[in-house]
């Protein structure tokens, strides 16, 4: 086909068979789900869907799970299609009328629930990183978006390799329309895994997935209680005579083996920064590269004020980057993260130390990936990485068209054995499991005023992946029932009447009749148990849906959003609040909590709902008496909401934090960013992320207030508060105003 040939001609390499297979399906009007390892070129399929939509003079939506990936795709499409591309990420709205819209999944979900008619001219929706369905905080958003997508829209679902991709495709086919699953397990660049011990790279897993045997008994000595005398444990973690390698040792070895550039993963932001500084003396960038980096850093940071240039994070990276070393984590200013990403993509940085947030879709392929630690803190304790997490990290190794192989390196650890590392690297991938839960604003947006008000809600609930997976359990029970019936019908009588033995009869040990228990008895008993399990599963599904909807209805009735089965005049406000604390905020508007507040007061209160890290920190900023009064009023509303939920047996509202206080107020009062940092024990990126979320919440509350009435007194306060927030480095770090660096296209971009 000419259209496909024209598209393929834009790339400097031949498309793979799995890409062409997916593109053929899209060209025929079908939907596709592509499950393939990181770096194999899934994005090419999505890019064809966008190309095809433009050829048909229709629109295309490209959704991502995180704003950083949305920003990157926006820049990529802008280079290709110019001003016809828009960006919607909640706090940023750029060219919303564009024919190609890049957005976070939350934005497209909100559009589908509230304004589905806006998708009449949409040809396709791309769901990048669709395995985010398993994310506890955001998985519901993905499910609702897929369920609510109009049937005329092609879906392009891109996923990392998962064990139940077939089940996921079956679910999408059931709730939307048939989708073709294309699984590609072969990496574009073969990946070899090495264990770094005693300054040597020892083969651990070859490119075919075969593990070595020469690493038995190495690592994990400290967990076995082995200690070596004479070591200073306060300075270095050591075990059984072996030093735990320092990042600088690993990077020095990679340089000598010509295995740079590398991404080096830690799960601690501080470790990333400390390791980067430790590698500075290696001077990994040559003079020419250092000059180019200096020029690009100056170009990117030209918009910063002198005070902002003096920020510790800016100064640290300004010193490190010309040496070929960088770091990247969620605690960084967005403008600096983008700078590190683009310098690395240009081949100017030789090593970047990063947390695992970098593994989520952002295009930063490397020759080598080092997994600096194989355990991760999950909020309560440390746990080993899952095979999925390990593959997500190491998938970045090997640049297509540049490297004959990718290399993954696991440094020796006295806390984790080499055998455990191999088990993680070769383990079976875990399945995607649904985290679906209904929310208040979904309930009100889908609540109908007719005789069957909960019909659409019941459809949404029954269409969730959670219910589909439970149906799969019922299907498995039916399959086993059929197998037992077949066995009872087809086995010879003597075989059915043989005494049960071994494991079959273990539960009858000690019974007087155990010797008379036959294989037929075993099958009949199992069949009866399966029938009971099937009945319980079906009834549980019906009860669960009815109970959940009734519980949410009770809460909404109690606060006056539903009356006699119909939405009230309060309902439109809550329909606009997608935040998890929407019910608290809607009640605050309805009760005119902000009647005597000023703009800085309002922004300060909203910021309390936007700090989502569960840890305390030093904070010298204080709020004035007027805001204390607001806090007491908000706490009273929050207590009522949480109590009502507890009485109804649901827990949807997390509530606001008591830690992030006074910071947004100080910023609105004109305090400089450097002064903010001096007054709180938070990194730059955490403050910036919270401010950006606050701006998004300002928009939601504005929409909610307008839904109540056009003359709400809070409206001018929200407009003024937004202007107070959007200044200086906060405005710059929203991303749209940041000048884009030209990228050098390589085959790795696929």
Shape summary: globular
Overall average residue pLDDT: 87
Number of domains: 4
Rg: 29 Å
Enumerate how many helices there are, as a single number.
29
Helix vs. strand class:
alpha/beta
Low-confidence stretches: 226-240, 736-750
CATH architecture field of the largest domain: 3-Layer(aba) Sandwich
Instruction: Give the CATH class of the largest domain.
Output: Alpha Beta
Task: Say how many strands there are.
Answer: 21
Please give the alpha-carbon distance between the first and last residues.
21 Å
Condensed summary:
This protein has 750 residues and is an alpha/beta fold.
Explained architecture:
The chain has four domains: 182 residues, Rossmann fold, CATH 3.40.50; 171 residues, 3-Layer(aba) Sandwich (Rossmann fold); 124 residues; 154 residues, Sec63 N-terminal domain-like fold (Orthogonal Bundle). The chain contains 29 helices and 21 strands. Strands 4-3-5-2-6-7-1-8 form an eight-stranded mixed sheet, with helices on both faces. Strands 10-9-19-16-13-15-14 form a seven-stranded mixed sheet, with helices on both faces.
């Amino acid at each position: 086909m000419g259209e496909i040939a024209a598209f393929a001609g834009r790339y400097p390499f031949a498309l793979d068979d799995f890409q062409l297979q997916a593109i053929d399906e899209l060209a025929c009007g079908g939907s596709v789900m592509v499950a393939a390892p990181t770096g194999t070129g899934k994005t090419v399929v999505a890019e064809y869907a966008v190309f095809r939509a433009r050829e048909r003079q229709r629109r295309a939506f490209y959704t991502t799970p995180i704003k950083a990936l949305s920003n990157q795709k926006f820049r990529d499409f802008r280079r290709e299609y110019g001003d016809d591309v828009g960006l919607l990420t909640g706090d940023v709205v750029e060219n919303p009328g564009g024919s190609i819209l890049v957005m976070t999944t939350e934005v497209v979900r909100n559009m589908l629930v509230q304004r589905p008619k806006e998708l009449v001219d949409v040809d396709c929706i791309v769901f990048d990183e669709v395995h985010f369905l398993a994310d506890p905080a955001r998985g519901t958003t993905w499910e609702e978006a897929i369920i609510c997508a109009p049937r005329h829209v092609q879906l392009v679902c891109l996923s990392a390799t998962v064990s139940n991709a077939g089940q996921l495709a079956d679910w999408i086919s059931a709730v939307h329309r048939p989708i073709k699953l294309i699984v590609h397990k072969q990496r574009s660049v073969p990946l070899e895994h090495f264990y770094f011990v005693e300054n040597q790279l020892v083969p651990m897993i070859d490119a075919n997935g075969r593990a070595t045997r020469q690493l038995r008994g190495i690592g994990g000595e400290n967990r076995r209680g082995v200690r070596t005398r004479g070591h200073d444990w306060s300075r270095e973690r050591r075990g059984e005579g072996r030093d735990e390698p320092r990042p600088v040792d690993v990077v020095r070895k990679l340089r000598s083996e010509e295995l740079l550039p590398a991404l080096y993963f830690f799960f601690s932001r501080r470790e990333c920064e400390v390791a980067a500084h430790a590698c500075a003396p290696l001077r990994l960038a040559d003079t020419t590269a250092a000059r180019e980096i200096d020029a690009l850093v100056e170009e990117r940071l030209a918009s910063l004020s002198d005070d902002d240039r003096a920020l510790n994070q800016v100064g640290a990276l300004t010193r490190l980057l010309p040496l070929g070393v960088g770091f990247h984590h969620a605690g960084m200013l967005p403008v600096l993260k983008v700078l590190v990403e683009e310098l690395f993509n240009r081949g100017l940085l030789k090593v970047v130390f990063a947390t695992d947030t970098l593994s989520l879709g952002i295009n930063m392929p490397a020759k080598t990936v080092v997994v600096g630690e194989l355990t991760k803190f999950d909020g309560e304790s440390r746990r080993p990485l899952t095979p999925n997490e390990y593959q997500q990290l190491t998938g970045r190794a090997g640049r297509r068209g540049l490297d004959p192989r990718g290399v993954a390196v696991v440094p020796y650890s006295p806390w984790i054995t080499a055998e455990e590392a191999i088990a993680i690297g070769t383990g079976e991938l875990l399945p995607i499991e649904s985290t679906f839960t209904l929310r208040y604003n979904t309930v009100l947006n889908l609540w109908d005023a007719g005789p069957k008000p909960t019909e659409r809600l019941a459809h949404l609930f029954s269409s969730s992946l959670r219910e589909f997976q439970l149906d799969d359990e019922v299907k498995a029970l039916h399959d086993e029932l059929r197998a037992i019936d077949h066995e009872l019908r087809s086995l010879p009588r003597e075989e059915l009447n043989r005494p049960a033995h071994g494991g079959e009869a273990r539960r009858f040990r000690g019974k007087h009749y155990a010797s008379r228990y036959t294989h037929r008895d075993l099958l009949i008993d199992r069949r009866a148990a399966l029938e009971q399990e099937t009945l319980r599963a079906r009834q549980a599904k019906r009860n669960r849906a009815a109970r959940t909807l009734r519980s949410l209805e009770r809460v909404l009735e109690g606060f006056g959003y539903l009356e006699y089965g119909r939405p009230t005049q309060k309902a439109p406000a809550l329909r606009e609040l997608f935040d998890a604390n929407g019910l608290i905020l809607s009640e605050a508007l309805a009760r005119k909590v902000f009647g005597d507040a000023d703009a800085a007061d309002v922004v300060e209160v909203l910021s309390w709902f936007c700090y989502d890290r569960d840890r305390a920190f030093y904070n010298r900023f204080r709020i004035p008496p007027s805001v204390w009064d607001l806090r007491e009023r908000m706490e009273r509303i929050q207590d009522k909401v949480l109590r009502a939920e507890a009485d109804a047996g649901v827990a949807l509202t997390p509530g606001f934090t008591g830690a992030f206080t006074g910071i947004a107020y100080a910023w609105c009062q004109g305090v400089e960013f450097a002064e903010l940092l001096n007054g709180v024990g938070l990194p730059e990126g955490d403050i910036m992320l919270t401010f950006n979320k606050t701006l998004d919440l300002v928009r939601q509350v504005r929409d909610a207030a307008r839904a109540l009435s056009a003359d709400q007194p809070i409206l001018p306060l929200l407009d003024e508060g937004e202007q107070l927030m959007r200044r200086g480095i906060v405005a710059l770090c929203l991303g749209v105003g940041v000048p884009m660096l030209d990228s050098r296209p390589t085959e790795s971009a696929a």
